[in-house]
Structure formats: C-alpha cells, structure tokens
Design brief:
By secondary structure, this protein is mainly alpha-helical. It has one domain. Helix 2 packs parallel to helix 4 and helix 5 packs antiparallel against helix 6. The protein starts with a helix and ends in a 9-residue tail after the last helix. Keywords: Cell membrane, Ion channel, Ion transport, Membrane, Metal-binding, Sodium, Transmembrane, Transmembrane helix, Transport. Pfam families: CRCB (PF02537). One of its GO terms (cellular component) is plasma membrane.
Length: 150
C-alpha cells in the first residue's frame, strides 16, 4: 500500500500516482518561483554570505513544521494537500543545492570561517525553525481547554 494511502484519513479518496506527481510538480514550480523571486529581491553581494538562501531554507523549515503539525492528527488533511504544499511547494522553495553551492563558493574564495558559519546557521536555523513551526501550529490547533480540536 502506498504511503499516501496509509496516511489518508478514513474515507478519503487518494489520487493516483500520475495525479499526485502532477500535484507535486505544480507545487514545486510555485515554490521554485517563490525562491527565485526572493533571490532576485535579495541578491548575494560579492564575497557575501548567501543570506537569501539562508532565509529561504529557515523559512521553509518553519513552514514544514507548521504543515506537518497542521495536517496530521485527528483532522488530517487529504494526501494531495501534503503533496502540494510539502513535497511540492516547500520542496521547490527550499534548496540544498544552492546552499551547497554557496558553501563551495565561499570555500573556493578562501573564506573558510564564513563557510562554516553559513553551514552552522543553516543547520541550527532549520532545526529550530521546524521546532518553532510545529510549536506555533500546535498552539493554533489546540482547543481552549488544552486539548486538540475534534
């Protein structure tokens, strides 16, 4: 049984593989365009840290934490929502390849300390971002009495 079917709420129709692939592709295209717009609006200065990529990856981590918390549990979203927003949009928005390229460029220019700082900021920022996003989403989906909404 595919993962999407195992994660689907009971009684939910799961789109087929072709449809789920198309859904992920649409989300991925939108996420990649959003990332491109951020990089155009916030270009990396010569010899500077790629702060746009850092911001995109940390923002994406926060949103992944929100998404995972918001779409699971008793009020789970249909699998296509996770496919569109998680695999698609956030997969296209965040970028490991640009992160790695930024590190390579910093190292190639002899800037070892900034490269290590960039790696550390990305790792710590992404882990903290997921935790923050999950915590924030948990606050939003909890009932006033401290329990989860039905």
């Amino acid at each position: 049984m595919p993962t999407s079917e195992r994660l689907a709420p009971r009684g939910t129709r799961v789109p087929g593989t072709a449809a789920m692939t198309g859904i992920a592709a649409c989300g991925g295209a939108a996420g990649a365009m959003a990332r491109h717009l951020v990089s155009v609006a916030w270009p990396t200065p010569d010899q500077g840290l790629p702060l746009a990529t850092l911001a995109v990856n940390i923002t994406g981590a926060v949103l992944i934490g929100v998404l995972v918390t918001a779409v699971t549990g008793p009020r789970a979203a249909p699998p296509w929502v996770r496919q569109l927003l998680g695999t698609g949009f956030l997969g296209g928005f965040t970028t490991y390849s640009a992160h790695t390229l930024g590190i390579g460029l910093l190292l190639a220019s002899g800037r070892v300390l900034p490269a290590v700082a960039y790696m550390a900021l990305t790792l710590v920022g992404a882990l903290a971002g997921v935790a923050l996003g999950a915590w924030l989403a948990g606050l939003l989906v909890r009932a006033p009495d401290g329990g989860r909404h039905p």
